[in-house]
């Protein structure tokens, strides 16, 4: 049984609906003073419909658009709560499936995409461009554009790996000079 849109929700219901953990919602309350659920006896939180809209917008900006906490705080300061709420509304209107709603095989990476490792934040090439885009750019890219960026990044990383292996193969191992032990220490 689902609740009416204007009904208040508990933290568990909000966490389930937004597909985030309860501690994440508490953290967002600390970072975003605009999120103010009603608190009842014993510290129980009740989220109003307008809180839900704002949380949907914050979640979309953080998870889907790739903004940082500071980036979303800046958006809230400069563009206001209504803009962030609109971001959340546009997601629900498009009815984009959440990861938990997808079948298990749809969540897996395609066979030709290796598991991600650590991504360097500085440098040139598609990896650096993607890292820069996450910070402040609000560019929307299609899945094919994203796949092309990932493939280019993988190619760049493979080239870097080959260069490193080539350099290691040519050089002699460097060893630190031995230190004499202190006597009577």
From TrEMBL:
<dbReference type="Pfam" id="PF13411">
    <property type="entry name" value="MerR_1"/>
</dbReference>
<feature type="domain" description="HTH merR-type">
    <location>
        <begin position="10"/>
        <end position="78"/>
    </location>
</feature>
<dbReference type="InterPro" id="IPR047057">
    <property type="entry name" value="MerR_fam"/>
</dbReference>
<dbReference type="InterPro" id="IPR000551">
    <property type="entry name" value="MerR-type_HTH_dom"/>
</dbReference>
<dbReference type="InterPro" id="IPR009061">
    <property type="entry name" value="DNA-bd_dom_put_sf"/>
</dbReference>
<protein>
    <submittedName>
        <fullName>MerR family transcriptional regulator</fullName>
    </submittedName>
</protein>
<dbReference type="GO" id="GO:0003677">
    <property type="term" value="F:DNA binding"/>
</dbReference>
<keyword id="KW-0238">DNA-binding</keyword>
<dbReference type="GO" id="GO:0003700">
    <property type="term" value="F:DNA-binding transcription factor activity"/>
</dbReference>
